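User: Some background: our group keeps a shared notebook of sequences we're curious about, and every so often someone picks one and asks for a predicted structure to add to the entry. Today it's my turn. The entry only has the sequence so far, pasted here. Could you supply the structure so I can complete it?
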Amino acid sequence: MSEIKDQVIMSESEKQEKAIRDEYNAKKRKKRIKKLITWLIVILLIVAGITYYNKVKKDFEDKAQAMIGAVTTVEVPVEENVYTSVIDLSGYVEAYDTQESKFRSTGAVTGVYVKEGDTVTKGQLLASIDNTNQTYQVKNIQNQIKQAELSGSASQLETLKLQLENAENNLEYTNLVANFDGTVATVSVSEGDYFEAGSKVMTIVDVSKLKATVQIDEIDMGKVSLGQKAYLTFDSLPGETVEAVVTYIPMLATYTTQGIGVVDVELTIENPPKQLKPGYSFEGTIQVEGDVQMLLIPQAAITTGRGGVTTVERKNAEGTTETVSIRVKYLGEGYCQLLSGDLKKGDILTYTKSASSMMMGMPSGGSKQGGR
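Assistant: Of course. Here's the predicted structure to add to the notebook entry:
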């Protein structure tokens, strides 16, 4: 009886165990199904993304290829035009002459006889330093010369005269004088100050005229000569033009950092307007006598290669093209002046424009050439 009871109890226990096991297995199956579905969704999304990316990429490449392939050949003639040639200038004016006044002797300042803004004349005494020692030296040597004239040798007398000349120079160095007619621009000394030889005391300027140094490149220098007129405009003189004259052309040129030869030409303004001061900036032109004939080439037709070599493609009568090396000067507004090269008026030049360059508003030709 007890055995039957145990079998019944065990059977119920097994049922419960089985039910728990079945429930656990069912949960595991549900988890596997959910995981599988998640992975399927992820894979589908990745596949869809790759497919979309490839489609967009192909469309873009097709459009880019079509744009690159759309090339237009442009033909332009070499043109001739007549210009009144001018050379552009810029710079600043300076005093016609400047004296940086310095004592050539050391000592205490005993007198300052001018102030800033005073007008001075050539040779006028400006300032002086203590000359007691220098005066003593002069008088002492003069006395020695008198004695030598009575009882000394000719050699001794000659030596004393040289010493007197040196002493008189030293005495002269204690006085500061104006080297030219002008105006006192700065004063940096007061009576009683102690100055070392070589120290700057004051500045004298001649502004009865003004001058300016302008750089003119080697291409334009052949058109410039002494006495030629220049016309300058200043921000300080709105609406006015100031006339200047080419007064100095040096024998030697210099080179800029771009490797261009330039000449520092000096201009002089006679009787400048009172409003102009040294340091004011200007822009201007030198008018070149006579009209100048120029051959013009569109900038877009020019290609710049390695080493800065510029070329164009010329179309021949039989329809072929050949490369021609040229030198040009950029004039602005998309045109260059032909300086050298085997081209003539009416020659046809060819260049290509791609759709991309046309959309961007940029020609497929070379880089812009420099010019004045």
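Suggested note for the entry: The chain has four domains: 20-69, 71-82+293-360, 87-94+207-291, 99-203. The two ends are 127 Å apart (CA to CA).
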